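The protein record filed below.
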Amino acid sequence: MTQPIPTSRPAGEAKTDEVLYRESFRIVGNDFEHGGEVATRVKAILKQLGFPTDAIRRLSIANFEAEMNVIMYAAEGSLELAVLPTAVRVTVSDRGQGIPDIEWAMQEGHSTATPEMRARGFGAGLGLPNIRRNSDEFNIESTVGVGTVLRYVVYANGKAGS
């Protein structure tokens, strides 16, 4: 069953803006060796486009956490980047195990990390909360046995809707 968690602002509020740049990045499950490469590539693109430093920092944190969640919990996934004049919109979708209890997973410190993941330094239960904290808009939908879709937006000025 899909369990959406709406944001305090309507997801898609920034969708009416013109897309200045769009790219899709593939993420391979269990590929720890390349973990973080997508987040690093997106950071470089945003720097080239002149996006504000604080917004890039917040997006980099959210993108890294989302990318690592795909690597740890899914067979494969993608990060879709859309740069708008005043915001960046990201959709991360995966083909994975899904999240049975989103409310539980959104609480800091709650983790389903395996011993192998913990040995690699992951599993503190901060991934999803960090994505939400660093986003101006955040939405998650997940279906057990199918996968998860995260949608988040970071505004250039750090204030949604301004």
